Amino acid sequence: MPPRRVSRCADRRVFYSSFFHSGDRTMPYVNIKITREGATVEQKARLIEGATQLLVDVLGKNPKTTFVVIEEVDTDNWGIAGEPVTAIRARAKASAGG
User: Fold this and answer.
1) Global pTM?
2) Catalytic positions, written as ranges
3) Could you state, in chain order, the average pLDDT of each consecutive group of 10 residues for the chain (98 residues)?
4) Strands (E) located in the chain
């Protein structure tokens, strides 16, 4: 138990040290929500890289202090126009003859 706490504290010190000495006091946070339908690890890595680079290019943010979180949501929990995506997709599949 104690070594684990020491490790976390050491990680925080390294992060906060680089953050406070970077000159940029903001920590951008990007939350990307997608449906859980098979985005690959590589695709998610590209989203993280792209969102980070966008903040660097447009706002001049420090990539070392930029957080990107990808949340994958089940289609049962994602709705469009008052209807779950699961139902929309099932109806589209049925009308396409599949």
Assistant:
1) 0.68
2) 28
3) 52 57 76 95 98 97 97 96 96 89
4) 29-35, 67-73, 79-80, 83-84
